[in-house]
């Protein structure tokens, strides 16, 4: 306890120095904790999106984008393209509840003097069920409109507001893209997205896939989504899909991806990205540690005479070493706890807009790292103080 009281007494005599030294650790801990919290929040957001879609979805895609459990072979993603014959063949599988072919393209949409970019998803009525999309205003298109090739579209609320000043005003209005006019019959509910480079679902456009044949002249699809009747049917459905498509394509030309596989691959990517970001943020902790080392060296120099007197009165080398080491660790802990507190306050404000959160591992990381920095960077000046000769220290001017 005597070492702790001595450390706090020394801090109280140099409040400005103590604050500035702890500030480096505060910033470093805050950067690491916040980046970890953002990573956890992003993972939670993605998992929630997948839970909303349901666990019984199966995606049939060209190539093998999940080779090795991650997105490692994206170049093979466009080896083939599916067509209506594939959809018809797959629709014969008994345990499939819904089959949804999807054609996608980025287009420029014009409404009056306003021009916005959007990603089109041309499909059947089933896309709204499989992607859990609902209409906020107006309605969604039907399979009858798909068969009739009706020139109708459903757009996201952000896109609607950008084109027509408000989402509600978009219903019943006309837009133009790819040389054709289309009527907006519905605006979807807000889903969010767009953070960290991800897709913004509120800027998407949905339209009947047969209507899109005016510019999708090859009549192809980038993905076919199937929804099994229940979770128990997933494996049998996957097996049947592979058997059917193998009659037209080589095994390596397509992949049948289960929802959990896609989520695992995405989580592995964010895990790597988050680790890299935290490692970069940890550089500021090293800078803070160097600051502590410099300040402790200054403190040792200022207290050389005091150290000499203590040694002359019987203090051991280990006593001096522990005294300065304890002061260094406490200084680091003050910065670490302060950084953790500031991070918690920031996360509380952010949670209204994004599901970031601080877990127990982040707390232990903050306290552990700040303590380690105090020990690592404090041991050198502490050893210098302990190695001082009592006679030379007392004579020091």
From TrEMBL:
Residues 279-390 form the ABC3 transporter permease C-terminal domain. GO terms for cellular component: plasma membrane. InterPro entries: ABC3_permease_C, MacB_PCD, Macrolide_Exporter_MacB. Keywords: Cell membrane, Membrane, Transmembrane, Transmembrane helix. It is found in: Cell membrane. It comes from the Bacteria. The chain crosses the membrane at residues 20-46, 276-300, 321-354, 360-380. This is Multidrug ABC transporter substrate-binding protein. It comes from Candidatus Roizmanbacteria bacterium CG_4_9_14_0_2_um_filter_39_13.
